[in-house]
Structures
1.
Amino acid sequence: MPETFHSSAPSAQTDRFVHDRLPPPQQWPTLRHDLPELQLPPQCNLVTELLDKAADKGWADRPLLRSERITLSYADVKDRVDRIAQVLTEDLNLIPGNRVLLRGGNSIGMALAWLAVVKAGLVAVATMPLLRAKELGEIIAKAQPTVALCDATLLGELQTAQQNHPVLHTIVPFNLMNEPGSLAVRSAQKDGRFTACPTSADDIALLAFTSGTTGTPKAAVHTHRDVLAACEAWPRHVLKATPDDIVVGSPPLAFTFGLGGLLVFPMWAGASIYFPDIPYTPEAMVLRIRDVGATICYTAPTFYRQMAPFAKQHGLPSLRICVSAGEALPDATRQLWKDATGIEMLDGIGATEMFHIFISAAGTDVRRGAVGKVVPGYTAKVVDDQGREVPRGTVGKLAVIGPTGCKYLDDARQTRYVRDGWNYPGDAFVQDTDGYFFYQARDDDMIITAGYNVGGPEVEDALLQHPAVAECGVIGRPDAERGMIVKAFCVLKPGHAGDAALVKALQDHVKATLAPYKYPREIEFMASLPRTETGKLQRFKLRQA
């Protein structure tokens, strides 16, 4: 039976919005905490464990958050987090369980805001900076946050979304040092005396939004226990970071890949994280790794491929671990990077629904072409459509069970992801006789391009809003550079010509409607689309074409 998932005394959880919208217990994944390090106390706050207790480990004066302008120690971060938590609870009157939307890029300000929200017993709802008002509105409608903490440079789209979603009644900008009402000014007026919310391990820490194949966002629910258990799995047994490590990377903190790799896991190890003032380019990341002496890097295979010539040109003497995730790692990319740096890339597969990586391999355990083996604490198998394990060497669906699992917020798609207690991430794999897992493909219509997930129907909806488009279908086309690209097949309305000018107009239209990375890099015009007798679009025929 699945473990009980509830808020138990002496938890201060008050707002039961998320708990009341969890799937029924029979749809929950089975959670296993078999290893000694996974035996967590029934009452714990993950920020208390990772930040407040750093002093007990001798890390108080060690650097934690770095940028070009400032370096904050663990003690500095604790002070700033406590002041922000005071603003949230004293000025904004938020109570445990309230959702707080976070909007920002990878920055010290975003990291501090996230930690303060969770320490106060609130539920962090982090959103990517590229999202447009439409997408933000869908998240607000689902999570019902009343307060948002937003990077001052990203207010526009959120304010537009707020107009249609008045439940979000307060937006507090951060990264403004002298603006009255900003988070920085408000928190500077506090004394920093804040006691962490005494959360149950099973209280909610975050909602992680991910687009499904329908384009409708799903919110994966994760508890304080989930995040701490994830720290005791892949980081402990595979990554093996140390307090001397300096971590850099490109995945957004709004992705669980980025949240783990660029905040939570370094804190668990006593390491530090460097955040750039502007987003990385491939060459800029190589130069920044050299300048700051970074030792661990997280990014997607596409970015490693683009970084490789600059790494070979400039050299990366401090770098020791390179983590690749977010999309399938082509062996050609692994070898290209190894030739440029001498470093064997650490591959892994994880899922927003599982919080982080559950299959991986590092160093001498790497097998060419394989993602790796199951991470200690997890169990994985390759199964058929009935959930029966298939013989080794046979393609099937991946099923995973461990200390984390999928619980969607109020979403009928729960039963697609969890069956008989097992999690089905939606990937086709082969497992060999030695236990190595080899990725084959997605077993749904998700498009994974340069590490970003894009739902085809979401792009179709945007294209159909253009006056020239009568019908359209969107698929992922294999691409050597990005893994996949978004490709659209469009049927035009009479009077419109399918020329290069219209291709650009449609691309610009999607960029203005959705996050820019979702736009179709290829558009093909057709007289009609393949459909079933009932009118259902046959995407598999588009892929064959």
Note: The first helix runs from residue 46 to 50.
2.
Amino acid sequence: MIFNRKTILFLVSFTFCGLNVQSQNSIADSLENELLLHPKKDTIRVNLLSLLINQIYDLDVNKAENLIEEVESISKKTDYKKGKANAIYYKGHVETVKSNYEQAIKCFSESLQLYKSINYKKGVSYSLNGIGIAYYFQGDYTKAIEFYNKSAKIDKEQNDLKGVAGSFNNIGNIYADQGKYEKAIDYYEKAKKLKEEIGDLQGAGRSYGNIGSIYGEQSNFPKALENFNKALTIYDQTGSDAHVLLLNFAAVYQIQNKYDEALIYVNRALEINKKQNNKREIASCLNVIGDIYKEQALHKKALGLYIEALTLNKEIKSKRGIAITLNNIATMQLVLEQESEALYSYNKALVINKEIESQLGTCRSYLGLSRVYYSKKQNVKALDFALESQKISGKLELLVLQKEAYEMLSKIYSSIGQYDKALISHQQFKILNDSIFNKENIEKITQLEYEYKFQQELESANNREIKLNKSVKSTSLDLKKSQRNSFIAIIIILLVSIVSASIIFYLKLRNVNAKTQNILIEQKLLRSQMTPHFIFNSLSVLQGMILNKEDKKAVSYLSKFSKLLRIILENSRDKMVSLNQELIAVENYLALHNIEENEAYNYTLVVDGLIDISTFNIPPMLIQPFIENAIEHAFGNQKENRKIDVHLKLVENNLVCTITDNGVGIETFIENKNSRKKSLATTITSERLKILSKDFKKEGSMKIEDRATFKEQGTIVTLVIPYKVDVVE
């Protein structure tokens, strides 16, 4: 019985990845709505398309390919290098899903070079991992590990613990395939520890499942079930799809000869994988059902399922899957007395298993060849292969295969007249058989152990009670002598309690005051963005358009106005919002004023390529008040060539936003004594940045300068904005 390790490939993305299909559909629907609201062929649309591709490429390849073409087209026209790299990167994943691994490697290698050219290290890490995945499916484990390690190194440098954990899981899968179980468990444990450290419960659940699979292959079923149940609990808590564990639970029931229960689990897994058209997992399910039929002596049905699984594995070029299925087919061929066919299948499986360094598969092939040669009465060859199988199974602690190898050795030694060795082998067979299947004895021992521990605790408690009674009696005799000391001690305790309570009360009061101050600042901020003057003007402009029968213009204005109000109200409820969402609000605000004033302002909104607006989160409503100041106060009587430029960049790991205008300048404005509105926005933002800097332990500051200092016209506002970055897998 081979336990299923779900291949936890680090299919990294540019956003969070929901594990269940329902979650993916929800995110995809939301992104498609955003795309409808943003038809403009610009970098924002490219980023939204990239996010959508990430959600669907393994569910709807054709749709993903169409979206990739659009990303490629827009990126070429706008010379958006990151967008070009994204398109090629996702082409690589599509080719992987289609099992075109050579083409996938070419795509990932090309995206790797593009990401390097713009110094986007996350993209570099993603591409390296993609190459590792393609090599893994080709069965080239050495190269796969090489690229996983390169990816992990970059993620370590970037402190991307989730990425490092993903690479560790991938490496663990390879060692598990090769039968290097200690190394595999070591990497799974490392991955689990990192996932738990960053609060990624779903990732930790995968690691528990993988560890359980290894214990299952070693017939350590209590340990296997312990880890499977931990994984299942996490999947239930997070609402994730737990079908990756179904084959493992089926295997445990199969070992206990509970075939009906096993078939329920494996058929559920098969149904889910057919819906997702996951050919690798469909083949795994067919192999497991074949195993169950084999043990029920339905040999021809089992052989038919194995052949179907082999066809799928050949179609996707899965060397590991081909080797496993060939071993299964050979077993059935031998049972059906097709010795020549069985010999051919076992030898073919052995070649592949050695090529991919799968010790488990090699062990099975050796055991199968021993059975074939024993059936053909070629005992010398049968003995050689049985000894090789016993050696590997002993080293890997594969109890079931060890038991079967000793059973085979007992038969062979008996046939060649070495009865002493036959007896020893049979005794080993019995010991292993009992250790695997004597479940009742194990349960009794466990029960006795708990009863023993309980009795120990009970006796310990009785001893503590006797000592306590003696102590009470002794204390009572000396009570009169110690009354004065006790009174003093009570006074000291009361004083300490009063002081402690005062400190706690003060800290709570300070915390409440800080929260109240936060709320007041946020209310002021909302009022500063949604001033009655702005709303009244906007509605007046809309009324004028309707009266002038400018229907199209009125509809466009109303759409932008309502969207802006919705975004402002939504953002005001959150402490952090997506940088992408904040920029949409700013762009809508600028566009509204341009409609009102007949394209009176030239504005630009530029984001440096190193900033991924989908993963950067910032406090809401920091930028717009300064744009409003520029529109209302910067230009005075200046009617032409009015420019406002907003630029976001990363400077020494700080997110810096500059708002530049070519108006009269801050010094001239102050001289005119008309700075009340600007002072309000400045005061509110200054207060917020002080609080946010403490909350997020990131620098936050504000500086307003007259561009005359730089021999230019206008004002420049420089905001250093505290931010957080979503870590993605």
Note: Residues 440-477 form one domain.
3.
Amino acid sequence: MNQKFKLFLLATCLSSSTFAQTNLRISSPDKNISLTIFTSQANQVFYSFTYRKKNVIQPSSIGFALSKPVAQLSYFTVTSVDSSNVDETWKPVWGEVAQIRNHYKELIVRLKDNSSAGLLLNVIFRVFDDGVGFRYEFPTQPSMHHFVVIDEFTQFAMAGDHKAFWQPGDFDSNEFLYNTTKLSEIDAIAAENSEKGIAVTSPIGPDAVQTPLMLKSADGLYINIHEAALVNYPAMNLMLNKKTLVFTSVLVPDAVGSKAFLETPAKTPWRTIIVSDKATDILASKLILNLNEPSKVKNTDWIKPQKFAGMWWEMHTGKATWQKDGGKHGATTERVKQYIDFAAAHKLDGVLVEGWNVSWEDWFGNWKEPVFDFITPYSDYDIGLLSEYAKNKGVKIIMHHETSGSATNYDHWMDTAYRVMKKYGMNAVKTGYVGKIIPRGEHHDGQWMVNHYQRVAEKTAQYKIMLDAHEPVHPTGLHRTFPNWMANEAARGGEFNNFSTGLPPEHNTIMPFTRLMGGPMDFTPGVFHLQLNQFDPARKQLVRTTLSKQLALYVTMYSPLQMAADIPENYNLHLDAFKFIEDVPVDWDDSKILEAEPGDYITIARKEKGKENWFLGAITDENARTLAVTLDFLTPGATYEATIYRDADKTDWQNNPERYTIEKKVLSNKSKLNIRLGAGGGCAISMIKK
């Protein structure tokens, strides 16, 4: 239904063109959410909303500061209001479900700024059953067509001192561990990282956090704050006033301190608040995807989710190096052949090769350009021979383009580099942006770089290349609009198991509620050798999961591009466990969030695309627990041959973490499972319909 009609729900109406204390209300389709927009006596505009009569957002104001023209947009006159009701269903190119319902009520509030500038501003609200999204629109103005935004004053007033899962605010990195505190205890300067000993320094201030921000209220509401459709605008951080518990948006600045350059008509990203009294509903929400535009890629037949091996982890663990100098170069012709052979033998689609191109000896920390040309291989890496070798084995080589932060250099080389990829039959690229950004003074998450990442997505689509971006801005659902932009890092991923004390067991139980709300993550699961002394006997580092949990991550940490992160030799010692990685799909028809609690545990079951098979992953934090689920989502009357990969008895992340048990069972939709998960452990189950 797409019915539009004028709406004038006003407490007081002085005339047809002048409104005082406007009071507008709109509910979600299921009536559980009630959104109110109103103006004060001073003509400030506020919004608030409730979920099942519980306060989610208290009255919160909106506004902007502009430097061109110089204007403070805080006081407005409401000029008109429109509303509509939309209920449609669309099919993603790939994803966690085969189709998505997009059902919301929309309210457009048209405003005129009361300052001398007299600028026009529209605020568009969409109310879904699981939350609210709103964005600002600067329509065409009578006399001004260009704006420079220096601040956005969107507020999110919390209704209580909620439990928060947060990262410190930052302009360049999302690669922090999560802290779990009350809102009033957030301190991104004094607080140490969750691992006690790694100091956190926020360039914004002690009370600043990043989105996605996950919250849990004392009265049982789960609340997630983020943004959707981040296009031509800087990313949003949040600054907390601890006395009032009000968050205010903080935009990432450019090199001279401005936030956004806009040409009318212009739209900001959506500000999103997802809410439910069930944690499982947060993970199941498709609100952020629904707020993004449909695919701009016309023909998507070439976009294929895939699993791949990686010439990657052995550099992290000291077996090899990215650079050729030193005698331990990893990406040699002979070594990559071994990865290709392994991928072909175990039904993997590709092999990612890092360290193949010249200049790794001089790539980091120099803040210079150019470093890489993205087309010149090292002398011991025969790109033509390996491409043909992989083709004959039914495997594709995945390209790696590390920019060393020099985005201007990458802009210059993209066309040439992608033509080289197509010459050698490559259809996927992993990009990287380690280091300070060039242009100098720009940030990873500012408007200039946001536009750069989109240019890469558009350019790779032109060449029919799939994209996996590392060190980018946080994702905001743009994989709907650019389905070739399949995965991102943008968080503390599996590589950090090699740094400092690694990732704590709770990390993967928080990330689906935070980082993954915006889109799939290239987390790099599947590490089987969990004591990292394999190539350096003096190392005491542990990967703080069990092997079974590493398998479960292929289900709980969704990505259409999944790496088998460990080296082939380690997998060859556990081929019975590796069978799950061989079998688990990366594209799904359905997903069931069976149980979840941020920071504690997650259990997800997913149905294979185009088939009747189901796969289940369950993970826990540092506490052992029992997985207890009923499999009523399976097809009634059908039976399934299940293979259960679980932690062995008395196994946890500290004690024999590589021990696992594999069991076979016949299951149906009436079956119940009770499976022990060791501390830091998990289980993975394949259920193949008989």
Note: The longest helix spans residues 407-423.
